[in-house]
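Recall that a protein's primary structure is simply its ordered list of amino acids. Everything else, from secondary elements to tertiary packing, is in principle encoded there. The following example makes that idea concrete.
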Amino acid sequence: MIFRNKGSKYLLCFALVIIAVTCGLQYVFFNERAVIITAVGEILITICYVAATCFRYRKISNITYEIDKILDGSSKINFKSFKEGELAILSDRVEKLVAILNQQKETLKKDKIYLSDSIADISHQLKTPLTAINLILIRMRKSDLSREERMSLIRELTRLTERTQWLISVLLKISKIDTGTLVMTKEKISVSDLVKKAYEPVAVAMDLKNQSFICECGECSVNADFQWTCEAVANIIKNCMEHTPEGGTVKVSASETNIYTEIVIEDNGKGIDPEDLPHIFERFYRGKDSDPNSVGIGLALARMIITGQEGIIKAQNKRDGGARFIIRFYKMVV
């Protein structure tokens, strides 16, 4: 490999010329013995240089071989033979680069699997209401339907359409958070105003179930994006409402310290199954006691919104029955 390099060829030729010139001068001005000693010494020096250069190029060839293995898809490489010098530094940098590339490769593989699973889940969630809508439309074509039956089908069609619209809207919001295109603006907001706004979408449904809603937030405030945080809190309140029996209670309370603002949302239902508790914030996860119409993305969206603002959320069961969701927004993130 050394003779592939033009610089090495020129250097070797130059060394031979120097040896010849030196020997000629020694022969002219001194004697043959001095010529022999000088020639032997310079030849030895040249041989040592050539040997060292060959060794160096052999090491470079080994590095090239290891890099070729990487390009061929091998995950096992060995740079341990390069212990010191500039080649050791180079091999160390290459090894670190390979580690980073392997890590990115695994991340991309996981993202690809996750994307595939997400698309499958989304298609499944959309397929259910769309199939029901199609069946209702086929049935509505019949001419022998009574006015009451037709109005009932229209109401069901409206409900399914609204559910599909809500599902698509939530999925778009999740995709914005996933891609990092969602911008949340933090401002000081009243927790009481936040909770009241979040309660509005479920107020009618809770009234129909004769459920009570209690808000004990006092004068607490939090630095967060009002609209998106309202979306997160509303999803949690909706989840509590769905798992609370008729005549039950959903309560939201807040407290504030010098470190964080805490919002607690709890109900007096039967709580969360211990097997579901570790997975309750996973996307498209449906617990054992989930409603048949449940999609399993409301709590996942809530967690993404809260953690996207450097907050934390956790779920637990109360000792006296019911579920409790604890949200904390820290006032200073280090």
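The chain is about 60% helix and 15% strand. Residues 85-140 form the longest helix (56 residues).
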